[in-house]
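Quick start: read one record
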Amino acid sequence: MTTTRLPLLKEDKPKKKMSRKITAILLLLFTALLAVIFFRSSISHITVIDFQGSKYSTSEELLSQSGIHKGGQFFAVSTKSVEQSLLELKTVKAVSVKKDFPGVITVKIEEFPAVAYELEQGGILKAILSSGAAVPVNDTGIAVEKPILTNWDPEDPNKAKLCQALASISNELTSDISEIVPSPTLSFPDRIKLYTRSRFEVITSISLLKSKVSYLNQVIETKEPGLITMLEADSYVPFQVGSEEQKGDEQKDVQE
């Protein structure tokens, strides 16, 4: 009797490639699910926006200009974009933005300094910054050593140049100046007239102010009140001499 051998059945081997694909898909789905849950949770949102150093700009103005708001996506905020947006404000000189997880954004602002003040119609006092921007003076108070700008056209380009010139001069050299008014001529289109707290009247130009201000202070410290001219040449004429000469002329007229 002969026996017939049956062929051995091959065992089904697991398809490794297929199992790896399924694992990868599951991982991706799991990661996507976690991402959805995370970005929908409050932990991924902006919860605090802290503006530091802003004196002349309100929080509402800064928020509107920056484009960020509470409840927005924390990770979607670009610090460079926020900085560039805020630098477009005429009050902002420098800005740095810092993000602290979870949800805190700190914005440090350096504003242009106030170099003068201006009293507008209606009695509204505004601070004139070195950038030329005019901002209302609220509860910040005023610096008494800053001059008042009078009769200036808001569109006058010399006004912005004057602000830049004042910003480049130390407060010690300008603290006695109480008022500055435009006084242009054909020869000196940027000519200005200054009035000091020590009762001097000064004629100069914006382009010469920085180089001439030291002479101004020398005269103020050593002379009686008078008219100081600081243009191509410097001169000083005391007011008292003029009044004495006028009195002498009047006496001569009486004698004649």
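Residues 65 and 168 are 28 Å apart (CA to CA).
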